[in-house]
Amino acid sequence: MLLNYLCILSVFLHVLTVHSQCRQGCKCSSKVTICVFTQISGVPNNLPTAITALTISGSVSSPNSFGHLSPSAFSSSRMSHLIMRYCGIDAIDAGAFRTLPELKRLNLEFNKIQTLTQQSFQGLTKLTALDLTENRKCDIKPNTFDGLSTLLELRLGEMDLKTFDLNLLQSLHSLATLDLHGNRLKTLDWAVLSSLTNLKHIDLSGNQLTTIPSNMSSLFTQIVTKRGSIHLGNNPWKCNWEIKWLKNMSVSFSSVFSIGNIICDSPANLQYISSISVPDPKLKPILPKILNCDKTKITVNEGMAVFINCTIKGDSITVKWINPTGTSFASSPLQQTGHNVYLNGSLYISSTSSSDLGNWTLSVSSKLGEDQRTVDVNVILSTTTTTTTTKTTTTTTLTPTTITTTPTPTPTITPIKTKTIPTTSSKIVTTKTTPNVTTPTLATNAVMVQDVSTDFTFKWNSAPQNIGSVGYLFLVVCAAIACQLFM
Ligand SMILES: *[C@@H]1O[C@H](CO)[C@@H](O)[C@H](O)[C@H]1NC(C)=O
Ligand SMILES: *[C@@H]1O[C@H](CO)[C@@H](O)[C@H](O)[C@H]1NC(C)=O
Ligand SMILES: *[C@@H]1O[C@H](CO)[C@@H](O)[C@H](O)[C@H]1NC(C)=O
Ligand SMILES: *[C@@H]1O[C@H](CO)[C@@H](O)[C@H](O)[C@H]1NC(C)=O
Ligand SMILES: *[C@@H]1O[C@H](CO)[C@@H](O)[C@H](O)[C@H]1NC(C)=O
Ligand SMILES: *[C@@H]1O[C@H](CO)[C@@H](O)[C@H](O)[C@H]1NC(C)=O
């Protein structure tokens, strides 16, 4: 402990003594050259050739506005750490990091990178950690990470990802940490995920996941064995029998699963309850069942709308309505057929016609079984239609057309909005994003990185300044103690 302090102190004193020979903004010693910048207008020029670490960090309230990183924006045969936060980077040109062969850690959090391709990280053959957290709505093209076979840690949190193709990770054989927190993932390709045999830490918190298939227990057992970590909080977990294995595991290995991790969102009677408090009998399978339909028989005039309001239950169910002639209508997000089937089992026919006349069947099924209910829809065909129909018996070929073109009165029931998924549990875990009032970066955005080489000025916030006067005093006292000890 004491040795540690002494070491830090000696580095500090050393830095102070050699500071004068080093570029402003940098600290140089024989082993390391570290440069730290805050508000600057572009990649700094004249960096020491021996630079080992570079940090450029704007802030939430005043981010930098670098725009795109041009090819070989940096050049150093020794740089191992490159951190650029809040730098307003919106694009990485092909080969931008090609001249940093020793780079191990690349941190690009809180930027605005719009697209990543296979060329973005070209040449980074020693990279072990890549952090892209909070580059929102970034389009990650296939093969983007293909060249990064040494990568151990990949952070893709808070990127508004709705889907994530895990095949992107197929070259990352050593990957130990995968962070996908705070995205909008409803599901993942679990089979691909379980092929990551070196995974030790996974963060899927703050997504829209409802369940994890039980065959993922092999991956989770692997993580548990390595004493890694599994973060699953803030997802709308559906607490049913499918999740029982996960509950069991999180009870047995609570140090790996963060406590209170899996909070139920559904069914309603278990909402907000931690799965570990739910007794096993309550996690029994819910068979598909039609509880009620508000009508068993309905009579309407042709052209009128019909709404059959049903209540159903069941785990992982498929809902369909079958019309009298045997055609199925499934629930779909695009409700534009005029025959809308809702996930909750209800049916809406916007304008009834002769083909709707007869018994409709609601079928609710899952791999556990099926339930059915029949509703008799009696459509009173308007007289004009009947006469047209009889007439068309002579002019045969026109039959279908004449029937469909019969004028339809406006439906009495207004169209129903499609069900929206509640987003209450998609709370974000880490710090908030930059405010919507982005700084007037537009003018500087246009400045390209290489154009900055002429006269750029930057504000050098030296480390001592950041420590503050109390820190200074502390360091002086430490120095005094250290000297005492040496005497
Ligand atoms: C897990 O089960 C699902 C079906 O439930 C299947 O698609 C997937 O391939 C299985 N994954 C593994 C790793 O066995
Ligand atoms: C929970 O897991 C343990 C072993 O991991 C097993 O012995 C036990 O039967 C499981 N309990 C339930 C309820 O699945
Ligand atoms: C459907 O039924 C539920 C309860 O059974 C009710 O709350 C809802 O308002 C009904 N919807 C319509 C459109 O009638
Ligand atoms: C089923 O969903 C429809 C459309 O969102 C809605 O109008 C109806 O009230 C729902 N029925 C029940 C029983 O919740
Ligand atoms: C509908 O089904 C009922 C019995 O469930 C039957 O009596 C009736 O005739 C059927 N209607 C039609 C149009 O087939
Ligand atoms: C920023 O958001 C606030 C409310 O969240 C809104 O009143 C304001 O108009 C927004 N400003 C801009 C520039 O969009």
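^ 2-acetamido-2-deoxy-beta-D-glucopyranose complex. The chain has eight helices and 26 strands. The helical segments are 2-18, 190-193, 217-225, 244-252, 383-392, 399-404, 442-445, 463-486.
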